[in-house]
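Kindly review these tokens for lecture notes.

. . .
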Amino acid sequence: MKQRSVHLDGETLTIEKVVATARGYAPVLLSPAARKRMQRSRRWVERAVKERNVVYGVTTGFGWFQNISIPPEKLRQLQRNLILSHCAGVGEPLEEEVVRAMLILRANALAKGFSGIRISTVESLVEMVNRRVHPVVPSQGSVGASGDLAPLSHIAAVLIGEGEALFQRRRMTGARAMKAAGLKPVILEAKEGLALTNGTQAMAALGVLALFDAQVLADTADIAAAMTLEAVKGKTMPFAARVHTLRPHAGQSLSARNIRSLVKGSKLVDGVDDDTRGKVQDSYSLRCAPQVHGASRDAFSFVRKTLETEINSATDNPLILPDDETAYNAGNFHGQPIALPLDFLGLAVAELGSISERRTAKLLDRNHSYGLPPFLAAHGGLESGLMIAQYTAAALASENKVLMHPASGDSIPTSANQEDHVSMGAIAARQTREIVRNVRKILAIELLCAAQALDGRKEHPGHRTRQVYEAIRAVVPGLKGDRFLSSDIAKVESLVASGLLQRVLP
């Protein structure tokens, strides 16, 4: 099936479109309107150079060197030097999907037409996406203002035939990768190096992918909670629609509706037998699941609005506004507008893992699982069952408590105090992405334990939870004795990441 192209116009990019290109390799095109806007701002730059006007980063040095004028014959060298000198990143390279997202986001920001860059240069950037030339971008080195300078410079380096890239999954020099893909390295003209590197696209790319995955985890958390509710013979009253109309937060109402739908028709909930006699209400990790999951969902909605504003914004400096006949020296590159939400996103995702780990603990605790064997072991004592799976969930939840420390609360001045307040947004984004990975594993452990617990019940679960159970059993057989658990957890984690479980939701 042919993929639909994503048209970059600087105005209409969405989270889903970024994911379609970054992960799904949907082709990318520049819109005609974007081309016209870019052409206008480029003409302004060329006229400023010809008239030898003083324009920051165009006819002057950068940062602390802003007051040093550069002669016309050195302007190409100025832009090239900017790229090479700013390639100072360290650490493990960012994943391919993150690099692809960065390329797409930078091209879209340039497509707004306020950066003074040539159309042909942006076309080369777009073709790197389409022909799968993926620069090697170290993950550390950005302070989040003036944007993500180091990460974006490592991308721009490949564009000019320097640095390193992956092409057809093989690592090679940037020059060789461009040649192999049938692309010519770009010779940068005035303003272009600055236009390519001055922006928030590393932190935004990480944030977009983390948010997309977080939304999958919110649905998964509802599914896992519903299965656990059935496994421990819980009560459905806390999920009644009437309850949530009295506190009408959108996320809370949605999670409650999901859980109601998932357990509909279940013979396991709301019953009274020898095991559950005297139980009036469930513990908070079940009874308050809509309130906790829903608060995270509402946080995700806020982060989505912020990120979709950011990925359709002009974030470099100076900004070229031809209608005003002016280059505006300003601070749109500063990452604070998304650094704070990215920290918030990490916290909201971590909470999904925190409450999930508590539900897992109850599934394995005979004092809370109402008739299930301790640790879901068939022969307790001889066997440990799923005991250590909960240890792993606890370790991941604890690790998240460290990772959710707000990176945006810190600032270390750079460039001889010219850049004296920075956002640390890239760190917030990387931490949040790691939290997402951890929570995916935590939820996989809960699903694994809930499926095993349902094996121990005679009554039938709801139609939708039954579908989830069968999907889990299609990749992991029931536990009939102690065995290697890491591969079981990994298989359920992959099932969660695929998004297939979401299909059971109404």
Summary: The longest strand covers residues 90-93. The radius of gyration is 26 Å. The chain is about 55% helix and 5% strand. The domain at 207-320+331-504 is CATH 1.20.200.10 (Fumarase C; Chain A, domain 2).
